[in-house]
User: Fold these one by one.
Assistant:
Number 1:
Amino acid sequence: MKSINPATGEEIATHTELTEAQIDAALDRATATFATWRETDIAERTALLSDLADAYHDHRDRLARMATLEMGKTLKSALVEVDKCVAAFRHYAKEGPAMLEGGSIPLASGGNADLVWLPIGPVLAVMPWNFPYWQVARFLAPCILAGNVGLLKHASNVQGVGALMQEMMALVGAPDGLFQNLPIRSGAVAAIIADNRVAAVTLTGSEDAGRAVAEQAGRALKKVVLELGGADPFIVMPSADLDAAVKQAVTARIQNTGQSCICGKRMIVHADIYDAFLERYATAMAAVKTGDPFDPATDMGPLSSEEQRRTVQEQIWKMKAAGATLIGGETLPGPGAYIDAGILTDVPTDPALMGEEIFGPIAMLFKAADIDDAIAIANAIPFGLGSSVWTTDPAEEARFVRDVQAGMTAVNQMLSSAPEAPFGGVKRSGHGRELGPYGLHEFMNLKSVYRK
């Protein structure tokens, strides 16, 4: 597996895949470590999380540079991502003990049912490249706190990140086998899910990958959490602060070069302010500086690979063939997988087209006649991960919260994940939740203990 710098096209490193025997040995280590880690005091688990937070903070520059080299995000955004991991480790270290308090329920027949949260075993995480540290940390932090152990199948192009995450565990003296980065390809995942030594699986990725993993987990009767992305709506109503909405709509499409599951992709703007929004939005997107991700003045680096750029180009061509108009979005010459920020207008309200998740710095812009039309456009696709709504009208806000089909809604701000709050979607954006106490409990056994 090769790591390629998407800013230059140059090879960074080659990583050797594990053999079947090495995978088997890793599963044995995970099983042996779980047998002892599950019995540790909560204080020992939270202390390890605090130590991990310190390690990530102390090595933030080195960690961030690897992410920039392997998948092209700007160095400043990579540093923010590492800091977010630090926050997640600290959050579960501080709040974890309270999350593990089960409580007691009185029974009408007499006595009580005491509730106890217990770990379930090794959890396999199949993770993507777009936020290579954060996607893993939001599984790893609750995994450690719960008393489980983690196995990581990271994306092939960010194996350097996976290796550094395992190195951080070693630096803080974590038990061998508590977290293992497995350099494997997708073809090896099914056998690991089927293995009796693995208790559950979590995946962040494409709909096809989610369907495959869900089928494999279903055959093995194992718990699975899926976060499968989507084409999130970003709805702007006449009462909104238009300048603030435009600014955040730009960030939504250029953050991580548009390679984010929950940043708005479909800008749905009320007809009364559509022209004003488009004028300001086009000007702001044209001003985005694309270039060297290590340059502090750069707003947006390359896409993660040449293959990803081709995918975005094909999506643009498909929409233009259907009648859409592209403003900006030009492919840049020279080495590197660069593309300028752009806007697609006049996109047909065809669910198949609107449901395209453009994983790049291209926005789709739609005109809505009224709030009912805006909600109808938002819900017309088979996905429902996040959403962002812009209004100062309380009645409109209540409608959006109730009627927009999504796992998350941000009001007058761009949606962003946080360690404290549950993260996940509905419809074909997946099921289950990460983060917060609910993410912790997804991979725990809630045992009822009946007492007289």
Note: DSSP finds 15 helices and 20 strands in the chain.
Number 2:
Amino acid sequence: MLELYTHLTPNNVPFSLKTAEEIFRKFLVYEGSAILLGEVDGKPVSSCTLVIIPNLTRGGTPYALVENVVTHADSRSRGYGKRILDAASERAWDQGCYKVMLMTGSSARATLDFYERAGFKQTKTGFQKRRAHEVR
């Protein structure tokens, strides 16, 4: 799984397997969160993180956030990324979410076209604020 993430952020700061296991355990107890993993012949080829967020508007209907969407470079353009996003969306719909959101830091046309082919529309403006000294 960690090797797959190198195809998302090649210069990601590595950390220990023990730390990764601790983080993964948090996902297991964080209600509404999941890391979806697509495999082919036992090899991870695509993944995304899904978080279901409780909501005090829209009659209490939750919404979902998708992050860390990645497909192994050797497995791109085969539909795996779309399938993992479809699975995340289905899980969100099953949890009663009224929308699924994601943001991308990429402005590459191919990336934006991929998200549109996966059913996402660029209808909002995203903003972010990062710590002055980014923690990796």
Note: The mean pLDDT is 92.
Number 3:
Amino acid sequence: MLTVGIDLAAEAARTAVAWLDWSDGRARLLRVAAGADDTLIVEAVMGASKAGVDCPLGWPDKFVDFVTAHRAGHVQVPEGLGRTWRRDLALRVTDQVVHEETGLTPLSVSADRIGHATMRCAALLAELARRGRPVDRRGGGAVVEVYPAACLKLWGLPYRGYKRAANVTELGRLVDRLLEAAPWLDLGEYEELCRASDDATDAVVSALAARASALGLVSVPVGEQAEVAATEGWIALPTAPLDRLVSLGSEGGP
């Protein structure tokens, strides 16, 4: 099985892609590409069994409805709710579930700069559909939305304080802890890049999360959540320890 992790930013300069090959009870990092452009990302997804994308796959339904109503001049604000009514405009259902489950709050796709990355993501999803690989935003198809910080926390690994060049020491400690927790993970010639670039490390974590999704070891939307997730997207949270990624599955697939 080949899984891909994509740490998606608005521009190629901060985007990284990682390829993990799973066979014989091990995961080998075949490649990490920093500065990944759209063409590379699409080709990576097309060639993978599963791709984990660290970026929202959609906007909150209530935000879309709000903007549509505002354009037409028909916005109606609920009475007596103060500022709380804006929560559902800023956060998707999956964002609120992640907060409930992990205590972490994903960036708001409608009220933060991550919206720029999501615009890029929307174009990538359209291109994948054009090539015959449409994306199920609930995570059931070729692509699953992931959140590296939440994955790391749920796997008992450091999940804060390793971003940006000023925190490269903490990033190195995270890589140390990851390799201790997953002795079956071989970063090969790309280990130094992972120690120097949080984008590269997040791409690797996203590829690990993609494997978890392929094996059914992640949360999935249920009931009304599933209907909303079809348009908003769904962050797949790991539901099993890290070592289950190699204790299940075989060389050929899940």
Note: The beta strands are 2-7, 16-23, 26-34, 50-54, 143-145, 185-186.
